[in-house]
Amino acid sequence: MINRRLIFLFALLPAMVCGQSVKLDALDKLADKASETVTVSLDGNLLRLASRFLSSDDPDQAQVKKLVASLRGVYVRNFEFEKAGEYQASDLEPIRSQLRDPKWKKIVEVRGRDNAEVLLRQENEHVISGLAVIVAEAKELTVVYIDGPIDMDGLSKLAGNFGIPEDIGSKVEKEKNKDKDKEKKGK
After folding, report:
1. How many C-beta neighbours within 10 Å does residue 14 have?
2. What is the pLDDT of residues 52-96, one digit of tens each?
3. Helix axis angle, 44-51 relative to 59-68, nearest 10°?
4. Structural domain spans, the chain
5. What contacts 182, CB < 8 A, 6 or more positions away?
6. Average pLDDT along the chain
7. Are 108 and 169 in contact (CB under 8 A)?
8. For residues 23 and 184, which has the higher predicted lDDT (pLDDT)?
9. Distance CA 60, CA 158 (A)
């Protein structure tokens, strides 16, 4: 599964804010082919309700509560398949077409046997209003969309909460390292 390293990458960016919704339901048809699925659809009201169960006394949980207070939603789709080839790259096209808006900026892209992308929706140079992560492996597909003002310093605290995979960054980091190793061997 995905790791926290990618989320820590976001901590390098300044705190930001605003947003436009990305619809993930085009992926729901993959559930019939998958051996395991995770679907999380939490709008702002449900996020705030869920955050009530977090402790204000625990600094990490308090930070998650603060971060969630201004979000409009957290949406996750994760599909694990028995064998490779049970989903196609074209299954992601409805999602990618929504992310072609000029306000979406790709900040991480890993291409190889497995692929990963991280995009931020930027209102202006100081305002981030959305985050999308797509990790496509041979037998697993994960898409995470966070809608709303994003405090990049606190984003790492969301990993492992509200259906966001705890290890969201390791797959991207692993793939980046594989590509670097291939380049070194090729020289």
Report:
1. 10
2. 888 888 887 887 788 788 889 999 999 999 999 999 999 999 999
3. 160
4. 5-40+73-186
5. 112
6. 78
7. no
8. 23
9. 10
